[in-house]
Amino acid sequence: MDVFLPIAEVSVNIVAIFSLSAVVGILSGLFGVGGGFLMTPFLIFLGVPPTYAVANEANNILATSVSGSTTHYLKDTLDYKMGLMIVIGGAIGTLIGIWTFTYFKGIGKIDIVISLAYMYILAIIGTAMLVEGLGEIDKARKKIITKKKLHVHYWIHGLPLRMRFQKSKLYESAFTPIIIGLFVGFIAAIMGIGGAFILVPAMIYIIGMPTRLIPGTSLFVTIFVSVIVTFLHAFNYGSIDLILVFMLVTGSIIGVQVGQKLGESVDSTGLKTLLALLLLIVGIAIAYDTFFAEHTTQEIAKIDTNDLNKLSMFIKKLSVEVPTLYGLFSIVFAVSLGVAAAFIRRFLSNLRKKYFKKAA
Amino acid sequence: MPEIIKNLPNEIKKNKLKTGIFIGLSAYWGLILIGTFLSVR
């Protein structure tokens, strides 16, 4: 069942997009990662041009992070002050990232840059996860218990402008979260990912935040970074396709809920090794596609706007004629879907509690 | 150092899985580094 994407100007299989985003959503819920670094390469394999894959996945991440963040807001597991410091760095990093993106797009090298960036990121995360996963399995077999240091001090902790973060019970330089945010924002703008896989370890090992505040704060930061990325992509390149975004958001929000439920009952040590292997396989596929596959120039037939259905025509016109409004609309669209998903989840959870209480 | 080299075949036999993963990862990294070098050239 193919659907024509009016902005990306390609036809994609609706079932394939929906199921892949649901599977990536399950993995996200299970391992607490954003999933953007898996979904963007999958979109590219499904025929969506890399420039569009990056932009639309950023919009999808916005919806899922709003959904997750609302849940954490309701549970009060969010450090706003720390989050805002990271956002300041993230905003600067995103702007630098978009300039870099524009530069490579200008010289016609953006597709290879995106592919190379994915290849290396997947290789680094895959290798790290594989080594860690195997180490954990080894330790569990030999029943070795290692004592970890409470705090490791790096050069970043010696920076000036120290301030108190009451919620996290920390007294640290404001530059620590700002520098981390800068790096995350830069990567997010170029690759269309939320950057949680960098942010979460940085929050644990560099900032030293309490574990219970990490997922919520990470999602809170991701909202702002992906808003900037989405808006700049929509405004500069008109590459946000609301039909694709809707398919991605629906699949991943359902997947994340399933993944979180599964995570409560499944031991993730062995699964982590499997996820690492999956990441490396995706990396190999990108390497093959970039270095060895024969690239045939796809001739895209010029689509007459009158041939499109009413919805596609409206989206296309809005994107071309009022890009600022379109950018804002795509943000509001993703945020509304995310908030709605969070409240539906809360409603269902309350309903289940009520039902079980009555049954008990 | 010579002791480590002498024991290497035994270590490889003992840890087949780890050796396999090490070779696999080395091949993977080699492939992407050479590929990057060639595509940049």
Short description:
Chain A has 360 residues and is mostly helical. Chain A has 12 helices and 4 strands, in the order ββαααααββααααααα.
Distance between the termini of chain B: 39 Å
Main β sheet profile of chain A: 2 strands, antiparallel
- In N-to-C order, the SSE pattern of chain A is EEHHHHHEEHHHHHHH
Helical amount of chain A: over 70%
In what range is the share of β-strand residues of chain B?
under 5%
Cα separation of the termini of chain A: 45 Å
Q: What structural category arises from helix and sheet content of chain A?
A: mainly alpha
Radius of gyration of chain A: 21 Å
- Characterize the largest beta sheet of chain B: strand count, sense, and whether it forms a barrel: none
Q: Provide the helix percentage of chain B.
A: over 70%
Summed over residues and divided by their number, the pLDDT of chain B gives a mean of 76
The number of helical segments of chain A is 12
Return the string of H and E elements of chain B. HH
**Pair with the most extensive interface?**
A-B, 14 and 12 residues
Shape of chain B: elongated
- Which strand-content bin applies to the residues of chain A? under 5%
User: Uncertain regions of chain B: pLDDT < 50 for 5+ in a row?
Assistant: none
Shape of chain A: globular
Task: Break the fold down into its secondary structure elements and pairings.
The complex is a heterodimer of chains A (360) and B (41).
Chain A: E1 2-5, E2 10-13, H1 14-31, H2 36-45, H3 50-75, H4 80-106, H5 110-142, E3 162-165, E4 170-173, H6 175-191, H7 196-207, H8 214-237, H9 242-265, H10 268-291, H11 310-321, H12 323-359
Helix pairs in contact in A: 1-2, 1-9, 2-3, 3-8, 3-9, 3-12, 4-6, 4-8, 5-10, 6-7, 6-8, 7-8, 8-12, 9-12, 11-12
Chain B: H1 2-14, H2 16-40
Describe the structure.
The complex is a heterodimer of chains A (360) and B (41). Residues 297-301 of chain A have low confidence and may be disordered. Chain A has a two-stranded antiparallel ribbon. In chain A, α1 (14-31) runs antiparallel to α2, α2 packs antiparallel against α3 and α3 (50-75) packs across α9 (242-265). Chain A has 360 residues and is mostly helical. Chain A has helices at 14-31, 36-45, 50-75, 80-106, 110-142, 175-191, 196-207, 214-237, 242-265, 268-291, 310-321, 323-359, and strands at 2-5, 10-13, 162-165, 170-173. Chain A is 73% helix and 4% strand. With 41 residues, chain B is mostly helical. Chain B contains 2 helices and no strands. Chain B is elongated, with a radius of gyration of 15 Å. The N and C termini of chain B lie far apart (39 Å). The relative contact order of chain B is 0.09. The model of chain B has no long low-confidence stretch (mean pLDDT 76). Classes of the chains: A mainly alpha (360), B mainly alpha (41). Chains A and B meet through α5 and α10 of A and α2 of B.
